[in-house]
Amino acid sequence: QRTAFGRTNFKFQINNAFTLVELLVVIAIMAIIGVFAFANYGNFKKDQDLKAAASSVHGLIRLAQSNATARLKCGADTTGSGANSIIEFKSDKVNIELKCQIPATPLPAAISIQTITLGNSITVDTITGDLGCTAGFPVTITYSPLYGGISFFDTGTPNCISSSKLNVNLKDSEGNIKTVIINKGGSVEIQ
Predict the structure, then answer these.
(1) Which of 167, 170, 168, 169 is nearest to 120 (CA)?
(2) Cα gap 173→180, rounded to integer Å
């Protein structure tokens, strides 16, 4: 537009800004999403802790199997026949110990190799067998040398000695459970 004096008037019109109401709505939506994400992160962390504990138990059991089938020596073993590998679930329900023991008569004391402690409020809730038994603590699983034959021993009534598999149920503080299944056939899996 030209004015009477030959000047041009420019009118600037800004239509690409956000109003205060629009900004407040976006901030409120982002805050709500952030609250849900933070709440779910806590659950995610607890689930990851439980999975890590189950993986640690699984790994310790696999190590015992491997040590037995590889006929590893234990302590001052001079027989060359290898040693029993023993997993013991302690009465405190948070410590699990891997031991070795020379298969001799009489049986010598077992030698501790490694102990894992379950953390983050995770415990071994129960150990059950496929025959409907619930194991009494402490529970031992013994792998024999060379062939890795397996035997269970516990103090429960009825005990799980003749079960063909054991379910080791790990539980967190929220009541979530992860199960490590040990079969006498040799397989170990996490559910």
Answers:
(1) 170
(2) 18
pTM of the model: 0.77
Give the amino acid at 25: V
Rounded Cα distance between 74 and 76, Å, is 6
Beta bridge pairs of residue 96: 89, 116
At a CB cut-off of 8 Å and minimum separation 6, what does 25 contact?
none
Task: Sheet containing 177-183: give its strands across.
Answer: 123-129, 165-171, 177-183, 188-190
pLDDT in tens, 126-150: 999 888 888 888 888 988 887 667 8
| Amino acid (one-letter) located at 173 | S
* DSSP state at residue 159: -
Place of tokens 């537009």: 1
Report the alpha-carbon distance of residue 11 to residue 80 in Å, rounded. 98
For 51-74, give one letter per residue: b (16+ CB within 10 A) or e.
eebbebbbebbebbbebbbeeebb
Residue 84's nearest CA partner among 59, 57, 104 is 104
Report the distance separating Cα 176 and Cα 169, nearest Å: 10
The per-residue DSSP string of 106-132 comes to: SPPPPEEEEEEE--TT-EEEEEEETTS
Please choose, from the candidates 90, 88, 85, 87, the residue with its C-alpha nearest in 3D space to the C-alpha of residue 102.
85
